[in-house]
Design a protein that fits this description.
This protein is mostly helical and 104 residues long. It contains 4 helices and 3 strands; from the N terminus they run H-H-E-E-E-H-H. The protein has a domain of 58 residues. Strand 1 and strand 2 form a beta hairpin.
């Protein structure tokens, strides 16, 4: 029996495009100096990437989410999406996202 890795062609194209965008960003970040990386971290640490306001930490089960009180955005640290996805089960949208992230 032949199994398809993706549910349909649209999902396959979406995964390919996402991987290309992530690879491009990773390559751009590799060219930044360590001093620039440190400056960016000090400037943006625990601030919302959408509106720039200070983030608050909210515990949700075993995950600590960073929540923006201003725009209501929610941000996760590395590995936290995996924790959420594993509780959602195989075949979910989140599970597909996690497969992409872990391939990198
Ligand atoms: Zn915000």
């Amino acid at each position: 029996m032949i199994t398809k890795p993706y549910k349909n062609e649209d999902e396959y194209i979406w995964v390919q495009e996402l991987q290309q965008r992530l690879a491009k960003l990773e390559k751009e970040q590799q060219t930044e100096s360590e001093a620039e990386k440190l400056r960016l971290k000090e400037t943006h640490w625990m601030h919302c990437p959408k509106c720039g306001q200070k983030l608050a930490m909210e515990k949700c089960g075993s995950v600590e989410m960073d929540v923006c009180p201003s725009c209501k955005g929610v941000w996760l640290d590395a590995g936290e999406l995996g924790t959420i996805v594993e509780s959602a089960g195989q075949g979910s949208f989140f599970h597909t996202c996690l497969k992409i992230i872990r391939r990198r």
